[in-house]
Amino acid sequence: MISYSLNLWSKLTSPNIFRSLPVILPRGVISRFVVKFGLGVASSLVLSLAFNSHLMATPESSPVLSAPISQVSPVNPANPVNPPKNSTIRLLETVGLFVGGIVFCIVLDRWFSDRSAHAGSTPLAQQARRLKQLKIGYPEGMTNFEVLRSQALLEERLRPFGLIVTWTSFLSASALIEALSNGTIDFCGGGGTASIFSQAADHVFVRVAKEKYTAPKGQAILVPEDSPIQTLADLKGKKIAFDKGSSAHYILIRALRKVGLDFSDIDPIYLTQPQALPLFRQGEVDAWVVWVPYTPTQARSSYPGRSIADLESIFGDRASLEVPTYYYAVPELVRDYPDLLKVILEEVNEAGAWAKKQELEAAQRLLDQHEIDPFILETLQKRSAERAIIPIDEQSLDALQHQANLFRDLDLIPERVNVKDGTYSLQTKQNWTY
After folding, report:
1. b/e map of 140-156 (b: 16 or more CB within 10 Å)?
2. What pLDDT, on the 0 to 100 scale, is given for residue 355?
3. Contact (CB, 8 A) for 200 and 271
4. pLDDT at residue 403 tops 90
5. Domain ranges of the chain
6. What role does it play (predicted)?
7. DSSP helix/strand/coil, 416
8. Mean pLDDT of 294-306
9. Rounded CA gap, 176 and 372, in Å?
10. CATH code 3.40.190.10 for 219-320
11. At CA 331, angle to CA 329 and CA 337, rounded to 5?
């Protein structure tokens, strides 16, 4: 029997058996076993030490240990292998503590495994694993996306689920929505005007949220520094460059109407901003309706010319309603990944809140140096406590529908569109502050 046991032990401890363990058992199972075994040994030692400390602290509780040596009975020669009674008890205690430690670690491991399994089976985790990759498109200079991307807020939130986030920049909101429609991206943000033209062109997308505030200086009508044009009324008969189907298109129409001019009173030059910039510098166009990004970039901070009108002078306090920034998603993201969409919008809102805080701090420094009006700081203080993005409501859709009707009346879109169509606009009371 002893010979058989020794042979078995030599086989179990041979290098081959250890090399084959990773094949027989998954690496994770082996790791968990080693950890639990180690914790069991450690727990047993701790408990054993605790019991030993107790025994040493109360020696009078053990008459065998406290008895004088002279009173200890000699060992019976007839029974030389019979151990003292207290040694048997200590052996049983040690074995019991060791087994108890192992059981404790198994129970603890089971509890953590259940919690991990529960976390991994949440709707968000399931949706993230199913999607695998989230593709986001953004226009350069859009504050919320710039912050979200630079600080990797979304990547950090979704990393535990193994979801990959990719970013692609686009020149215009219309290009973004077209990319949504053909499946190049899953989520984006941009001006609301572009969605009207995209809806009229039967592109596939859903408006899912909007920014609460539009920067009052976010778009402007520029003329060359030496231009004789001083007011909006001076634009009559002039060549004006702008991106067709963008918010600049709507801004120009409303600016002309403000001074009694019709769209037919000017010579429209349809160009994207990169195309318009060199022509404007060369004096080949008289004016340029341009989007000035919220976050300054090197290319756009060097725009030439001077402003004769901006959102604030054209729309007053209705600028955020008349020229909104929307967030868009593919229908599949809205339908099949609602928990994931909620997380995306939460992080967009978080990025916007961070940006407003930075803007407020910068304004405070300017105020301390007497370089800005205190009213500007007061406005920023009010907005800094509010959400960055809000759900789409009736009021915002009414304003967007007004735009759509205007473009149809001017024959700029082939037919009337209903922006309140649930296929294109998601109305919800969801709060994305968490």
Report:
1. bbbbbbbbbbeeebbbe
2. 81
3. no
4. yes
5. 124-213+324-410, 219-320
6. Part of a binding-protein-dependent transport system for aliphatic sulfonates. Putative binding protein.
7. coil
8. 59
9. 36
10. yes
11. 80
Tokens of 418: 């209903």
Q: What is the CATH number of domain 124-213+324-410?
A: 3.40.190.10
The confidence band for 89, taking pLDDT boundaries of 50, 70 and 90, is: confident
Average of per-residue pLDDT values in the chain? 79
Position 322 scores a pLDDT of 95
Distance CA(137)–CA(334), nearest Å, equals 16
HSE-up of residue 234 (Cα within 13 Å, Cβ side): 12
Cα atoms in the 13 Å half-sphere on the side-chain side of 399: 18
Q: Print the SS3 string covering 145-204.
A: HHHHHHCCHHHHHHHHHCCEEEEEEECCHHHHHHHHHCCCCCEEEEEHHHHHHHHHCCCC
pTM summary value: 0.69
CA dist 296 and 144 (Å) reads 13
Q: What's the rounded Cα separation, in Å, for the pair 7 and 69?
A: 45
- More confident call, 85 vs 424: 424
Tens digit of each residue's pLDDT (9 = 90 or more) over 319-335: 999 999 999 999 999 99
Say if strands 267-270 and 239-242 run parallel, antiparallel, or are unpaired. Answer: parallel
Say whether 232 sits in a helix, a strand or coil. Answer: helix
d(CA 338, CA 327): 15
Tell me the DSSP string of 19-85.
Answer: HHHHHHS-HHHHHHHHHHHHHHHHHHHHHHHHHHHHHHH-GGG-HHHHS-GGGSPPPPTT-TT---H
Mean local confidence (pLDDT), 45-49: 58
Nearest to 146 by CA among 294, 367, 292: 294
List C-alpha distances in Å: 12 to 8, 16, 27, 215: 6, 9, 19, 73
CA angle 380, 375, 310 (to 5 degrees): 75
Residue 130 neighbours by CB under 8 Å, 6+ apart: 336, 337
